[in-house]
Amino acid sequence: MAKLMAVTPIFAFLLVALSACTSENTVDTDSASQTPEQTQTLRIAAAANLSDVLPQIIDGYKTDENLAAQDIDVTYASSGKLYAQIKAGAPYDIFLSANQEFPAKLAAERVVDNDKNNESYTPFTYTQGQLVLYSVTKSLHGLEPAAVSDLLIKDANGKIAIANPELAPYGASAQAYLQSQNLYNTLNKQKRLIQAENIGQTFQYAHTGSVDYGFVAQSQIIAIKAKPEQFITLAPASYPAILQDGIVISDALIATDFTDYLRSKAGQHYFSQAGYLMVK
Questions:
Q1: Each residue of 175-188: pLDDT tens digit?
Q2: Which of 18, 24, 99, 242 could form a disulfide with 129 if both were Cys (CB 3.0 to 4.6 A apart)?
Q3: Residue 259 burial (CB count, 10 A)
Q4: Tell me, what DSSP letter sits at residue 277?
């Protein structure tokens, strides 16, 4: 009996130690299951023209992927401004530009780690925008796209807003369109061109009647359910194609997952409904 009593404390010690180890292992397992992807905020730098459609895509993504608790933070601005922020070290996970130039620059300048040989760091096209002439002060009823240049010439006092061509791809396309119609230099000399910072500000100028016309995005027109007499959708062949590229600029797996969704059939459906052209 004395011998049994001498051994018991040893067993008790071993049981306590075993219990502690088991407890530690349980905590580690639970901790490991809480991966950064489940709690990490996804930060997206998005071109201003996406402000109407991207919230819908994000809601659809969360629903379709069962990620209701996923935090997604979006900053909207001109593509050039966002590019500058990223160059300066802004902590975004995804950059969705309104053109192809800025994502290509990021890849070429190795702001992202191309040495990882990961296709996630390669620019991809996620949609194609359409350019529209919009007005709330002048009726555009019955006018065909080919009549836009004549309209702008005849309305000698009409003010026209375009986004900054140096920063905003929609502005660059609007500038190219006016140049192709031999109007850009004339309108500049007449001081009829009003330059906005981005496509969002361009739309506000036209929508509030601060200018008579604005070269805006078709998606903005769809979003407000504009009347047919308020806009003319320009022929896609009359200006450089507004191919919009994106790029993943972090190692977050959720970033790659979201960009895959953008290019999926479900994601492209949202773009099509919002006035963009679908891409394969």
A1: 999 999 999 999 99
A2: 242
A3: 21
A4: B
